[in-house]
Specification:
about 230 residues; Rossmann fold; five-stranded parallel sheet; alpha/beta; binds calcium ion; single chain; globular
Length: about 230
């Protein structure tokens, strides 16, 4: 799961990135409203921690813009301002939760778990489900419900599978997948994506799932539940 932290205070931003990385999340930072908005638009993130008081434009404006664009990524607002009006405005604009600074890291981690559980609906027991596929987020094993076989995924296979499941029924470009799984700085080639998709297809077939990763010519891939 990948989290974007939009926070202009560098010390806090770096501390959040370190804490979340230590908890096993992937985390990136953005330092102002515009950078945060641009990064959210890449669709690479499963959750956004969004400060309200930001340079360029503020967190409420970022939230307004992303919801207007139809991005339904969960957002937890972070702010030093704890006025009721801010909170009401944030919730009205589609924030999922709200945390007033200063906050303790365990509280933030609890809110993150709560929001992601509510949004994905079915990550109870550390399992992510789509169609008949079951992905264990702790052991990295892939199973098919009702079938006996399971298979363990490698780290990159797991990240790719998780990204596909969390964005199922949406076309993801090779570029999005490369950035998400290998990172902005990696010199991974787009054809890595094709190679790893072929690995996952074999594993999906092995566990006897009906789900399939469809190729969308010239663009990328889409995970579908199959059986129609
Ligand atoms: Ca701030």
């Amino acid at each position: 799961m990948k989290i974007l932290i939009v926070e202009d205070e560098e010390g806090l931003r770096e501390a959040l990135i370190r804490t979340l990385t230590g908890e096993g999340y992937l985390a990136d930072g953005a330092a102002d409203g515009d950078e945060g908005y641009q990064m959210i638009c890449t669709r690479l993130y499963d959750l956004v921690l969004l400060d309200i008081m930001l340079p360029v434009y503020d967190g409420l404006e970022v939230l307004r813009r992303i919801r207007k664009q139809g991005f339904d990524v969960p957002v937890i607002m972070l702010t030093a301002r704890s006025t009721l009006e801010d909170k009401v405005e944030g919730i009205d604009l589609g924030a999922d939760d709200y945390l007033t600074k200063p906050f303790a890291m365990p509280e933030l981690l609890a809110r993150i778990r709560m929001v992601t559980r509510r949004v994905t609906g079915s990550v109870a027991d550390n399992r992510l489900r789509f169609g008949d596929l079951v992905l264990d987020t702790q052991s990295y094993t892939l199973e098919c419900s009702g079938k006996a076989r399971s298979v363990r995924l490698g780290a990159k296979e797991y990240q790719l599978m998780e990204y596909l499941i969390r964005n199922a029924n949406q076309v993801l470009s090779r570029e999005q997948i490369t950035q998400r799984v290998w990172g902005y700085d990696a010199d991974a080639e787009y054809n890595n994506v094709d190679v790893y998709v072929s690995f996952l297809r074999k594993k999906i077939k092995f566990v006897q799932s009906e789900a399939r990763i469809s190729s969308v010519r010239g663009i990328g891939y889409e995970l579908e539940a199959g059986s129609e």
